[in-house]
Design a protein that fits this description.
single chain; 79 residues; mainly alpha; 2 helices; membrane; transmembrane helix; transmembrane
Length: 79
Amino acid sequence: MAARPLLRSVAEKRYGPLELVINTVMLYSNNMHAWFMLLGTVMFCLKTLFTASAALRCGVAALFLVLLWLAIAWAVQLP
């Protein structure tokens, strides 16, 4: 007997109109929450860059670049 997958693929599942609306709202609300978190991080990084020592500035700049890279990689994978 073949193993049955735990989750059905999106192509196999039939969504009703209410499920489509709920999924769309959840997708956009999650994305907006992520963008607001990213924006807050960017503002903190910019504020820190102007008020911190040189070593901390380099560390924050590196953290900002990593977060930016992760955000772009995450945004590219969105459907």
